[in-house]
Structure formats: structure tokens, C-alpha cells
Amino acid sequence: MAVTMQTNLGEIILNNEVIATVVGGAATDNYGVVGMASRSQIRDNINEILKKENYSRGVIVRQENNIVSVDVYIIVLYGTKISEICRNVQIQVKYNLETMLGFSAEKVNVYVQGVRVIND
């Protein structure tokens, strides 16, 4: 499903791939986020961190009555405060959607799919 916006010049349709790329980039830029995760790991048989070209598997976009909501599935770093990371992801995703794509998300739901230990 794509997000549709009406302007005085016509209609703008944003594909989910575009939105997923913006949302995935915003989410992974936050400290404590290891990467994006698949929203249905069992069905997709993916238990790894998604690459940029697969961000759409970790983002769900819904539009109902001109209200847009976004679900983001992430993997966080062990030893970080998960609630703070999720709040930062919500803020960053909303900001990037407003500045880059020109629409606001009413809700940004963040789902933590896993915790990873990163060895340096």
C-alpha cells in the first residue's frame, strides 16, 4: 500500500519502498540500534540484520482516513536502555518523514525483535 497525498496541483503517491528506506535509515542512525529486523522472522526465515535494500521487510506503513501510522522492527544493542532507544527512533522517524517526504505519521510503533552483543 502506498501513501497518497492530495495537493492543489494534483495527487502525490509515495511507494512503500521509498518510505521504508527513509524510515530504516532514520532508525538505524540512532545509537543502540544494531539494525532492522524482519517483521515476521519465522515466515521469512530471516534471523539476521536486514540490509538497506531489504528495509521494507522491517517496516509496515498503513494509511486510514488520511492518518498514517508506521511500524518499525529493530534489533538493539545489549546493555543499552531499550525504552530510550525506542523513543529516539520514534522522534527521528517522525522528523525524517516530515522533512524528507512532507507528511506526518500519527503513530510510530517500535518493535524490538532482538538484542545483540557486538564484539569489537
UniProtKB/TrEMBL annotation:
Belongs to the asp23 family. This is Alkaline shock protein 23. It comes from Jeotgalibaca dankookensis.
